[in-house]
Write a structure and sequence with these properties.
- The complex is a heterodimer of chains A (212) and B (150).
- Chain A is mainly alpha-helical and 212 residues long.
- Chain A has 5 helices and 3 strands; from the N terminus they run H-H-H-H-H-E-E-E.
- Chain A has a 3-stranded antiparallel β-sheet.
- In chain A, helix 2 runs antiparallel to helix 3 (95-110), helix 2 runs antiparallel to helix 5 and helix 4 runs antiparallel to helix 5.
- Chain A is globular, with a radius of gyration of 23 Å.
- Chain B is an all-alpha fold and 150 residues long.
- Chain B has helices at 2-18, 36-39, 44-53, 55-58, 73-87, 98-113, 120-125, 133-149.
- The longest helix of chain B is centred in the first third of the chain and has 17 residues, at 2-18.
- The chains are: A mainly alpha (212), B mainly alpha (150).
- The A-B interface holds A 6, 9-10, 13-14, 17-18, 21, 127-128, 130-131, 134-135, 149, 153, 157 and B 6, 9-10, 13-14, 17-18, 21, 97-100, 103, 106-107, 110.
């Protein structure tokens, strides 16, 4: 009787292990699918949201002279805001906050719909966003040195994005000659606060360009 | 005592059973046209460094160690390789946008300069994958040249 118990116990354990192992794999797949689905849904929702806000804002936006300042103005503004928050976190040498804002930036970048742009712009924007998301995700999970490295690439991506989408508010392109053979960053004010060095060299840099 | 025996037995059985769970091998005989070696003119020495020190986890062709025949090591390796390729896949490099290529090359440069790659856990076993100072200089010089051309 006892032997039987032991044997059945062993069998149950093995079966359980196998189930757990196979479940884990299956679960992985279904989570991926689920994510893909949610992303699609999100994209759809956002799209609908845009259309309605576009109607409401049409009068306000018609004054803009940029060809593509239509429905995605709010999305562009959100991306720029998240970027500026990230910049501020790096200025403040705050690794944790930078990682949090990096995450938020990745989300707002993914939520940006490029449908309304022409083919060449879509290609360019698609590449910019792919690259920027990658930078944002690395910033979210890296230590500060790496965050700053990726912030450099991120700044170029956002600058190139704005060149196509335009920006609802004035943005200053700043330049730091020291960091990695010269690097740019973007700021909402023309006061120099260096995100590549933070408190170590807060005032290093100058305004290079005003982007309206 | 009995508990020890039983759990030992269970572990043994589990160990034997998991050996039969298949893993897919990251191996290929063909070098795809998107491979970095076909996209750029890579000097022989740099090519050799990439292949010995990077390609196991960053390409579609891994030179597996013997313990890949044993579970759960094979799972662990599979996971590492998948993550490595997600970050950077030299076999697929040519299909990246120029922007992404540039950003990847910069990351390659900083990872090598900071001795973060190849991983120390990897070079511990693959002694030949460890980069000497002159290896590093050679790779970084080449990477810089390509970055400037992009």
């Amino acid at each position: 009787m006892r032997k039987l118990k032991v044997i059945s116990g062993v069998f149950v354990t093995v079966l359980l292990t196998l189930t757990v192992v196979s479940c884990k794999e299956a679960k992985k797949e279904s989570t991926i699918e689920k994510n893909a689905n949610t992303e699609m849904h999100n994209a759809k929702d956002e799209h609908e949201e845009h259309s309605s806000s576009e109607m409401n804002n049409k009068d306000m936006e018609s004054s803009g002279d940029m060809s593509n300042m239509g429905q995605d103005t709010s999305k562009v503004a959100l991306i720029i805001n998240n970027y500026l928050e990230l910049k501020d976190a790096l200025v403040a040498d705050n690794e944790k906050e930078a990682s949090k804002t990096g995450n938020e930036l990745a989300i707002s970048l993914k939520g940006f719909s490029i449908d309304e742009f022409n083919e060449a712009q879509q290609k360019e924007l698609g590449e910019i966003i792919e690259s920027a998301v990658e930078h944002a995700e690395h910033i979210a999970k890296s230590h500060m040195d790496h965050q700053r490295e990726h912030f450099k690439g991120m700044s170029i991506d956002i600058k190139d994005m704005i060149a196509i989408t335009g920006t609802p508010n004035t943005i200053y392109q700043m330049h730091c000659p020291m960091y990695d053979k010269g690097s740019i960053w973007l700021s909402a004010s023309n006061e120099v606060e260096n995100p590549f060095y933070g408190s170590k060299m807060l005032k290093c840099g100058k305004v290079q360009k005003e982007i309206n | 005592m009995k508990i020890v025996k039983i759990s030992g037995l269970v572990l043994l059985i589990v160990f034997v059973v998991v050996q039969f769970v298949p893993t897919s091998l990251n191996q290929s005989d063909v070098i795809p046209p998107t491979d970095i070696m076909k996209t750029y003119d890579v000097p022989k020495q740099v090519e050799a460094i990439f292949k010995t020190s990077c390609y196991d986890c960053h390409s579609n062709n891994t030179n597996y160690p013997w313990y890949n025949k044993v579970q759960p090591m094979a799972w662990l390796l599979e996971d590492h390789i998948n993550k490595g390729k997600e970050e950077l896949d030299f076999s697929d490099f040519g299909s990246y946008s120029k922007r992404r290529q540039k950003s990847k090359l910069k990351s390659i440069r900083s990872q090598i300069e900071d001795d973060e790659m190849p991983l120390s856990s990897y070079t511990l076993i693959h002694r030949d994958a460890k980069l000497s100072e002159s290896d590093k200089v050679m790779v970084v010089e080449w990477v810089n040249k390509i970055i400037d051309s992009l």
